[in-house]
Every structure is written in C-alpha cells, then in structure tokens.
Amino acid sequence: MNKSKILFFCIIIFSILIPWYNFNFDKDAKSMIDNTYLPKLESGKKLTSKGIDNYLSMRMGFRENAITNYLWLNDYIFGEMTHPTYCYGQDGYVFFKVRRPQIDEKFISAFARYLSRVQAYCDERNIKFLYCINPSKTTVYNKYLPKGFKYENKFYDVFYKELDKYNVNYVSNKEYLTKLALDKQIYNKKYDAGHWNDLGQFYGTNNMYKALQKDFSMISLNKIEDFNIDQKLETSLPVSKFEISELVPRFQYKYDDVINITNNFKDIDLHKNFRAFQCYEKNNAEDLPRVLFFHGSYYNRNRDFYKGAFKETYAVHNYQNFLNLDYYLNVFKPDCVLLETAEYATGRSYFDYSKLANKKFNKPYVTQQHIKHTRVYKSNVNQSEEIRNFKIIGGDNSNLVTIKFNTNKKFSYGYLVAGYFEFDLSIADKVVSCTLDKNNFDENNFYLCLFE
Q: Which residues contact residue 394 at a Cβ distance below 8 angstroms, ignoring those fewer than 6 apart?
C-alpha cells in the first residue's frame, strides 16, 4: 500500500473517531442550536432503536459545528435556511418554522373554563383578574410568510368564543398589534422570531393596562419619556449560530424609584422547568395596586415595562406555576392577578391538561364558617389529637414561612386565619400545609379551621 493510500485511510479513520472521542456524556447538557436538553438514556425505561439513534445523533461530537457550517453553506450558495427552528419568509423576514396550525378545541375549552374558575376564585377574595393573549409574529406579519404558504389561523375564532362563553375578563392584542404593524416594526424582521421587540412590548403592555384601568383607574400607561431608548446590533439568531446583522430597539426604564425585592422570597416554590421569578416594590406608590403577574417569555425578555407600574409586582413564570395559583395568592395577597400567554404557548405542551381540568379550589372562608362539621383549633394546636407534628418552618433568611402538620382525620379543605387574612390550607395524604409571608402571620395569634 503506497503512502497516499495510507494517508487517505488514516484521514478517514481520524474523521470517524474524533466525533466519538468528543461525544457529549453530560447528564443535563443542552443544545443551543435546538434550544432543548439533549436526550438521555434513563435506567428503568424501555430502550428503543429510535431512542438510541436520537441519543447518539444528538450527542455526537462537533454536531452543532457541522449543522452551523451546513446552514451557512445553504444560505450563502442557495439563499435557503435549513435551520431546525427558523425559516425565511419574504422581504428578509425570519419566522419560526411554519406549520399548518392544529386547533386543539378540547384544550381551548378546558383552558377557558379554568380561567373562569380562577376568575371566580379571585372575585370571591376581592381580587381582580385579567387575562391577556398576545399574538405570534406569524399572525401579525403573515403577509411576509414564505411564498406558497397559505395562512389560515382559526385559533382566535375558537378561543374568543370560549372565553366569551365562560365570561372571562380578557384583552387580546391580536387586532391592536396587527393594525399597528402596518406602519411600525413591532416584531424584528430577523432577530427573535418568537417574541415582539421592545417597541411592540411598549404598545402591547399599554393596551393591557387600558383594560386594567377599568378596575384601577390610578394605573398610568407607559410613556416614551419614561425610557432610555437606543438600538442594539444583533449578529445571530437567538439560541443559534446563524449570522445576521440587525439593529433592534432597546428600551430601559430610566427611573430609580423601584427596588428589587426578589431575595425576600428566595424560597418560593417554582416548577423545575419554569424558574423565572422577580419581585419589585415602587417607592411612594401607596395608591397603586399590588399585582401578581403570571407571564411567559414575551415578558421574561424585558421586565422594564411593568416593574414601575404598580406598588408591588410579583412576577412568576407562567404555565405549570399558574396551576398552583392558590399557593401564590397565599404568599402575596395581591389586589390583582394578571395572566399573559402567547398564542403559540397556549396549549398542552405548556399547561398540564389533567391538572388544569381537575384543579380543586377552596370556597371562600366566609361561606364555610357555619358548616355543621367545622373543626376549629386555636394556636395551641399541639394539644389537639387531630393535629400531630405541627411545625412552623423558615422565616430566618426569607419572608416565607410554612405551616405544616399531619392529621389523623380525613379533612377535605381548611383555612388558617391570622389577623385580617385567611389562607387556604393545602391537604394531601393527611398532610396539611400553608406557605405565607411571615409579615402576615403572628404565630401567637392565629387559628385553623378544618372541614371534613
């Protein structure tokens, strides 16, 4: 065998072995180009050829480099985007991969019904509720979608009908932003195909505030002069190495009248996949409401549009956390609950359908006080045979305290009453618990009401 053949053979072997040598074995590795965690082979789960193939191909060494180079070549030579997440539209627009929308009417109906139950739960506690639905870039700028793609989106027709059926208090930014988009760039042409830009967020937030002003007239709309405004050059698509060059607007709240108080609640319970959480307090704003705001990535990207609007703002990453609403109401005792979802994030992949359909809420305490089978326990609860191992946990390095105990009785629901506040007890497997702000709790002056 001559030297050239040996060299060629060595190059082939080397090119095969190097990716395996750089194989990614990290348990919680994430693919930036796919914006997802890499697949795992978990013990106890049945292995399939498809699962093994997916595990090997996604974790192969230099995979992202190879995909990036392939994307660049296709774009440079053919003007085509072969990205797993994005696609080219017309006139230089970039969108998420376009697909024929599938309308999940069963979920939409269940979601609207859940919102009506949340609204009733809030109303019974003198808390206002408002839901805001935000459109996707595909909906607002559909005329720039790829040639040949016929845009048909019946999501809003179905959704509005269900929201109205259940009398949900809501505002939609779809029609408002679509009209604005005729002469304003409220979603970037290329960068961040999944979210509005800061200009769109400015207008969309104000439209939400207009609806909120029906109950809280003291809330002010955002003003352009409240922000320092400039432009930022973006050189690649988010979670991608696909190169672009686009100046995007950037708004920054200019005043220093807001304090970040997130660390006061660092022990807050959050779903493992939705961890975003921020709290703000505005100085000299006693007339403004306290707001619990559940939102998704439309607002995670920039919080400057709401952190100065309220006396106190408790912003919780949406989705699975919103199904734990009663927990957060116990903790924050707000005047208002705001919920925001993006059009494409209003579905089963974000909200657990079973939990949403089967969620149980306590009736308000005031309606239960005279029920025949009431069990009332004063603060010396350790002397009661129905309550065992009573504990007050936390409160040292956080504002949060948790009351927790076991019970011999099979109670259906219950309340903790402390001062001016009533708190819903969580009861599961004969374990009763309640988490609240220690500033709303005096351990020497409270009582429990448990109902069989």
A: 267, 400, 401, 402, 438
H helix runs in 141-197, sequence order:
155-165, 174-180
> Can you tell me the distance from the alpha carbon of 308 to that of 226, in angstroms, rounded to the nearest whole number?
10
Question: 390 and 318 in one domain?
Answer: no
User: Is 305 found in the same domain as 189?
Assistant: yes
Residue 5 lies in a domain: no
Nearest CA to 140 out of 188, 99, 84 is that of: 188
Tell me if residue 148 falls in helix, strand or coil.
coil
Stated pTM of the model: 0.84
Same domain, 200 and 106: yes
Q: Using CA atoms, how far apart are residues 362 and 187, in angstroms rounded to an integer?
A: 41
Query: Of 104, 108, 110, 103, which Cα lies nearest the Cα of 355?
Result: 110
- Residue 244 covered by a domain: yes
Crossing angle between the packed helical segments 63-78 and 49-59, to the nearest 10 degrees: 80
Number of domains in the chain: 3
Q: Is the dihedral of CA 82, 86, 90, 92 positive or negative?
A: negative
Helical (H) or strand (E) element with 400: strand 400-407
C-alpha to C-alpha distance for 56 and 36, rounded to whole angstroms: 15
Does 296 lie in the same domain as 211?
yes
| Domain span holding position 420 | 365-451
Selection from 261, 327, 205, 241 nearest residue 34 by Cα: 241
Question: Does 305 lie in the same domain as 253?
Answer: yes
Domain boundary among 358, 389, 423: 358
| Averaged pLDDT, 262-266 | 94
Of 306, 337, 358, which residue is a domain's last? 358
Q: Are residues 117 and 214 in the same domain?
A: yes
Structure tokens at 308: 């100065």
Q: Are residues 229 and 352 in the same domain?
A: yes
In which residue are the tokens 């789960």 written? 45
Convert the pLDDT of each residue in 150-204 to its tens digit.
888 899 999 999 999 999 999 999 999 999 999 999 999 999 998 999 999 999 9
Contacts of 217 (CB under 8 A, 6+ apart): none
Specify if 44 maps to a domain: yes
- β-pairing, 387-394 with 290-295? unpaired
| Exposed/middle/buried for residue 361 (C-beta within 10 Å: 0-12, 13-18, 19+) | middle
Task: Give the span between the Cα atoms of 415 and 413, in whole angstroms.
Answer: 7
What pLDDT, on a 0 to 100 scale, did the predictor assign at position 451?
80
- 219: closest CA among 288, 279, 286? 288
Residue with structure tokens 């060059």?
A: 245
Q: Cα separations (Å) of 166 from 117, 171, 376?
A: 9, 14, 36
The H-or-E segment that residue 72 falls in is helix 63-78
